[in-house]
Structures
1.
Amino acid sequence: MTEKRIIKKYPNRRLYDTAISKYVTLNDVKQLVIDKEPVKIIDAKTKEDLTRSVLLQVILEQEEEGKPIMSAEMLEQLVRFYGDPFQNNFASYLENSVKLIAEQRAKVRSGIEQVADPFAIMSTLANRNMEVFKDMQEGLFSKITNNPVKPKKKK
């Protein structure tokens, strides 16, 4: 893995990209992420890692302009998961689901799967997503009941 590109955030909210020695915008940070350039955003003074906070700002800007990904109802549900006993399981499930969708998107774009049948692709994606969800539920059930679930044999 390549080293992360360091971007410093100053008290005046400006972002400074140390790799190119220039001030950058949130849009520039967004483009780095799209280009799969690993970034780490730190407070210029305290060296605190601000990466998550700045990426949330990027998402907020994207949600406010154009076509949002998350509805108000979805955001309400997300808020309700914070502090909930299911928070860790949900976070893991959500992360795995997003990775799965990204993998499927990459396969479609590279032509590995047959693009001629988008329903087959979506069906495969839905089935894999259900497997991830079932695994999450079984893991949660085994934690709650203190009764480990025996691993399934792959077909």
2.
Amino acid sequence: MESAKYLELSDKKQKLSYALAVVAGLLVGFANGFFGAGGGMLAVPALTFILGLPEKKAHATALLIILPLSIISSIIYSRSITLGAEFIPVLIGVLIGGIVGAVLLKKLSTPSIILSFYFLMAFAGLQMVLR
């Protein structure tokens, strides 16, 4: 099992890591459901610092975590709001950006990924403060 090499801890520490991972998962799910986004930004540090996954693997895993969250949130939101055609250009941009981002994740070095993630987090935080 590949993930076992990341969790080579004593049983006590491993149980604590799993408990913290469950709490982090609750926060990720809550953030994504409540804010409509942001779960991935919380998932990456949780996967890196709590479970000890390498940066690239944490980013890729976060994408897999966010997919079902986004589907569930979309279904719930779609019951209460009606979307017009104005979301189509955004959807096109998101699809293209997602493909480009996934390709870059495979090609960039770990320090480059970490640095760009920190800049994105800082930018998002600054935007929230300025609003």
3.
Amino acid sequence: MTSDMRPESETLFNMIIEKYGDILNDMQLKAVKESVDELVENAEALRKIKLDSRDEPFSVFTPYIDEQDGTYDT
């Protein structure tokens, strides 16, 4: 749409316009464009983080608490 958009943002935004452009007004299109730009920026930041095959997601242990007697079941 504009030359200041990243190529990935422009591609995604054009896909949205193609599918929903006839039902979105200018204000909504502007909001969508800003959202797409933000999503692409976040995706680029995530792509810069190099992960090793040993890297795992952080997991939090949360024991089950029986609501009837308040005991933990692990």
